[in-house]
Fold this protein.
Amino acid sequence: MMKKLMMAVAALVATMGFAFAQVDVNKADAAALDAVKGIGPAKSKAILDERAKGEFKDWADFETRVKGVGEKNAIKLSEAGLQVNGKSRDGAAAKPAKADKMAAAPGAKK
C-alpha cells in the first residue's frame, strides 16, 4: 500500500513540474504550444504552419515569420517558457527559483 502511495505522489510531482517546463518552438506539438501563456489555438496553428516550411533558426526568424509576434510579445512568450532551439529570448527576465519566490514573499519565514 505504501509503495503505491509513493508512486502516486511521484507521478503527481512529475506532472506538476511539466507545467513549468520549457517548450521549444521547433519540437513542440499544438498542445504543448497551447500550454504556454500567451499562445492559443490560432497562434499555435500559425507557428506550426510556419514551422512546416522549415525550422526557426533563432528568435529573430521566429518573430519575422509568425504574424503577431514582435519583440515585446516574444519577450513575454520567452518568460512564459517558450524557447527557440533551446534558447530563451535575449531581454527576457529569468524565472526566479522557487526558493527565491518564497524568500521574497511578504511574511515569509527565514
About this structure: The CA atoms of residues 55 and 61 lie 9 Å apart. Residues 2-18 form the longest helix (17 residues). The beta strands are 23-24, 82-83.
